[in-house]
Design brief:
- The protein is mainly alpha-helical and about 325 residues long.
- It has 15 helices and 2 strands.
- It has helices spanning about 15-25, 35-45, 50-65, 70-85, 90-95, 115-135, 135-155, 160-170, 180-200, 210-225, 230-240, 250-260, 270-275, 275-285, 295-315, and strands at about 105-110, 155-160.
- It has a two-stranded parallel sheet with strand order 1-2.
- The longest helix has 20 residues, at about 115-135.
- The chain is elongated.
Length: about 325
């Protein structure tokens, strides 16, 4: 255990070229206990373990598990923990009182831009490991349960966790996979939180503070554009929440989100196939009393863009 202990193990105390040597010792291990899997996951979350060392560790363990199949389920749990960027105990510490009367029940917890490149690489590597070890259908069922547990248990989610969930859904799920209704509803609410929270930052060019926002916006748009049901439910969520909003800033977020989505090429197929839902959403927003006498650029742009696309679709 002293080799990989997440607090004082050798793996975290040596330079990257020696970290690989420590990792290679795992080839000779006959079994890995639950506690060691947990320590390995914690090491992967630690910045002292170089990102190249983490990817090497994941590939090494994938090879090891392929010849020790009885440990597959423990390995899947380990991969999921690495993927979401933190342990469940850390997630629990980040929770704040649940939000009521807002656009979404989820709150995004900002993280350092320094984590973005590291976490992007880890997410890509984890998804490749999933793909190597199991069929996408079997893996999707397991992942859907794990992600549903996170989305049900926690409502304050760090950027790394949200990014992992959105991007993993896009990467692992195929058109033939079955999505549970409760999971789709939770994921829609999560997408709504991401899209309304990041819509401004994702369109500020050249500002490093918005790198995370751009990545999250892109991941959410990519997922929604792939799954028509998410766009349908996103419109339904807007219709449901808008009448109860008394904060003009939140109305601005929804209007700006829809304006940007309408301007996004990859969303055109969804929008063309769900004209009625978009129309209902626009009408509900424009009926809000707070917007009756409001004259702002974002509202004018929203009216122009939605009117333009709806008129084109009616022809």
């Amino acid at each position: 255990m002293s080799l990989i202990d997440s607090k004082s193990g050798i793996l975290l105390r040596v330079p990257p070229h020696l970290q690989r040597k420590v990792i290679e010792l795992l080839h000779y291990v006959k079994e890995i206990s639950v506690d060691i899997w947990k320590e390995l996951a914690l090491c992967c979350h630690d910045s002292r373990l170089a990102v190249d060392s983490v990817t090497y560790l994941l590939h090494t363990l994938t090879i090891w598990v392929s010849s020790h199949r009885s440990f597959s389920q423990l390995f899947y749990s380990f991969l999921f923990s690495v993927n979401i960027g933190c342990s469940k105990s850390e997630l629990a510490k980040q929770q704040v009182p649940e939000r009521n009367g807002h656009i979404s029940s989820f709150k995004l917890d900002q993280q350092s831009t320094d984590l973005l490149s590291r976490h992007t690489v880890l997410n890509q590597t984890v998804c490749m490991c999933y793909d190597v070890l199991s069929s996408k259908q079997h893996m999707w069922e397991s992942l859907q349960n794990a992600m549903m547990n996170i989305l049900t248990t926690y409502h304050t989610l760090p950027y790394t966790t949200i990014y992992a969930i959105l991007n993993t859904c896009s990467t692992i799920s195929t058109s033939s996979n079955q999505w549970r209704d409760d999971f789709t509803n939770k994921l829609t609410n999560c997408c709504l939180a991401v899209l309304t929270s990041t819509v401004v930052g994702s369109h500020v060019i050249g500002n490093v503070e918005h790198d995370w926002e751009e990545a999250l916006w892109g991941a959410a748009v990519n997922l929604v554009s792939q799954r028509l049901v998410l766009w349908e439910k996103l419109c339904q969520e807007c219709v449901k929440c808008v009448p109860d909003l008394d904060n003009v800033d939140e109305l601005e977020s929804i209007c700006t989100m829809l304006t940007r989505l309408i301007q996004t090429d990859s969303m055109m197929n969804c929008i063309h196939r769900c004209t009625e839902q978009l129309q209902d959403t626009v009408q509900t927003i424009l009926k809000h009393p707070s917007l009756a006498s409001l004259e702002t650029r974002w509202l004018a742009e929203f009216k122009y863009e939605t009117g333009l696309v709806l008129n084109q679709l009616d022809r």
